[in-house]
Amino acid sequence: MHRLVSLLILGLLLSGCEQAAPKVYQQQLFAFGTLVEITLYGVGEDQARQAVQAVDAMYQQQHRDWHAWQHGLLTDLNQAIAAGKTIRTDPSIIRLIRLGQGFERSSGGLFNPAIGHLLKLWGFQQDTPPQGPPPPAAEIRHWLDTAPGSLQVQIHGQEVSSENPAVRLDFGGFAKGYAVGKAVELLRSRGIDNLIVNAGGDLCVRGRHGDRPWRVGIRQPGTGGLLASVEMENSGCIFTSGSYERYYDYEGRRYHHILDPRSGYPATGTVSVTVLTEDPTRADAAATALFVAGPGEWQAVASRMGIQDVLLIDDHDVAQLTASFATRVHFEQPPAAIEIVQPAP
Q1: How far apart are CA 284 and CA 171, in angstroms?
Q2: What CATH number belongs to 6-62+177-341?
Q3: pTM confidence score
Q4: Helices and strands counted in the chain (H then E)
Q5: How buried is residue 128: exposed, middle or buried, by Cβ count under 10 Å (0-12/13-18/19+)?
Q6: CATH match for 68-173 among 1.10.3980.10, 3.40.50.970, 2.170.130.30, 1.10.540.10
Q7: Smallest Cα–Cα separation from 258: which of 248, 247, 249, 250?
Q8: What is the pLDDT of residues 219-250, one digit of tens each?
Q9: DSSP 8-state secondary structure symbol assigned to residue 170
């Protein structure tokens, strides 16, 4: 899922320091439909190149296995569920199902990785941008009546089934976060402790680069300008869900890809949600769940999902952010209003 672009302010990171800058190795990959940039600090070129090649090989395998509409392990699983059959699948798929079930449970159903058929109805399960009118209301009502959810998936060892043939798993709401986390694990297992893995603006940092903290920039929704910069000490992951990266316009109305499983329609009231936490998988899922929850409900959902640092921009350009996030953020282009809030207990 393509996100609101966050960028590393490399000018701040790599210049203006009297100490010699650490050696930097940077390489770009393409996976999960987005550009992945890996930056390693203080590592020899051969070690860095081999490590990035290993990440690339892992990503290409994950992309094939987890793709929601191109043939692979996930499409085989969805076809078996639709046919009412039990299928034996790979442990990586089992792990993602269990993670998705946990996020569906903690979000109160606002994050639902079983809405693949709804995404297809809206045209967001294809390689080309959607065109034409939105799906008929009757088709959306029918989908709502079938009420698919990942908690309806049964797992016995490596065998998976569901009694609801409408379940169609799509890991797009959190698989990129999981993949970023696996890349960080792989790099650290090879002795690389100071790094950035940036997947289309959703990123994790680990370690340090000299004696300075990491600073990450968040772009202004829809304009490309810099909204804010965020300071991150030693490690952390920042993920954003935005309404303007994947969308289409029809008869003067915009339809984006972040769908509310309660209504079957794109979520309303929010332009972007940024989440900062240590766990990239949780950050990825929470950014989507809080976007769906919207300005009036996200605090309770954040609390249930274990998220402390949140920035939400609503469709009136009002920024709502937690007190802990407020201590780390500097607005370059202040929004119309700023509200400091606390996640619900």
Answers
A1: 11
A2: 3.10.520.10
A3: 0.93
A4: 10, 18
A5: exposed
A6: 1.10.3980.10
A7: 247
A8: 888 777 889 999 888 899 999 999 987 899 99
A9: -
